[in-house]
Design goal:
Elements lengths: L1 H10 L15 H19 L5 H19 L3 H8 L4 H21 L25
Helix pairs in contact: 2-3, 2-5
Pfam family, one: ETC_C1_NDUFA5
Keywords: Electron transport, Membrane, Mitochondrion, Mitochondrion inner membrane, Respiratory chain, Transport
Protein name: NADH dehydrogenase [ubiquinone] 1 alpha subcomplex subunit 5
Amino acid sequence: MRITRLLLQATQKVTTGIVGIPVNPAARPQLIGAYKTTLDELKAKIPETAAYRKAVEAITAHRLKIVEENDDTATIEELIGNGQIEELICQAEDEIKLISKMAEWRPWEPLEEPAPPRQWEYFKKAPLTE
């Protein structure tokens, strides 16, 4: 029993190496909760047809599946590939806040006034030249 405890302590990280983000000993369950909250908030506040909802749902569901299927933090971080688990928690919490803002802003609705002619011409692809 002692050897197992010593080995476990040796594998736990001491710091994230990121100022202001301490190591979270309960990171995995917290991340699972954040991802489930994200999916619940999307369903409650954003229309199914909104591109934002479709994109966030797809990413979040994919990440949630990874976290639920893996107990090892290093494996989760590697498979998601977007930072340490503590950073993933911060990202998920920020997304939850953004969902409320998106619900308020309603970017999926038509513009109140039509866009001026040639509004988006600047952003068109330039023709290929030889």
